[in-house]
Amino acid sequence: MKMNVAIYGAGKYGQYIYNEIAKNDEAKVSVVNWIDNFVKEKQICGLPVYTEDDFFLSGEFEKIDGVVVAMISTEAEAVAASMLLRGYTKIYMAFP
Q1: Residues of the chain with pLDDT > 90: what percent?
Q2: CB within 8 A of 87, min separation 6: which ones?
Q3: Which of 9, 17, 46, 75 is the least crowded, having the fewest Cβ atoms under 10 Å away?
Q4: pLDDT for position 73
Q5: How confident is the model at residue 1 (pLDDT cuts 50, 70, 90)?
Q6: Which is it for the CA torsion 43, 91, 75, 21, positive or negative?
């Protein structure tokens, strides 16, 4: 059974992580959506993009096993803190 995750950060590093997961047929992780507060697109790589607020308001956080934060460390720390303040703890940090 695969772990379903969202990638927080749809920039170059987030897309790198997505591509690495997508090209591995034996990956035990599946990316199901993106979280990014600054991307204008509604979909990237065929997956929906949510702002952090929409991610929580829509209930999408209940449908996944975790969030992979894919951005530079100073931004990642602020994102993790924001999610923790919302009571969300299934956070995985991926630093470039």
Answers
A1: 91
A2: none
A3: 46
A4: 80
A5: confident
A6: negative
d(CA 83, CA 86): 5
Burial label, 65 (beta-carbon count in 10 A; 0-12, 13-18, 19+): middle
Q: Give the integer Cα–Cα distance in Å for 80 and 77.
A: 5
Strand partners, 50: 35
Pair of tokens at residue 36:
């990014």
**Distance between CA 17 and CA 82 in Å, rounded?**
22
Beta bridge partners of 31: 5
| Half-sphere exposure in the Cβ direction for 84 (13 Å, CA) | 10
Torsion-angle region of residue 93: left (phi > 0), alpha (psi -120 to 50) or beta? beta
pLDDT bin (cut points 50, 70, 90) of residue 74 is confident
* Encoded amino acid at 8, one letter: Y
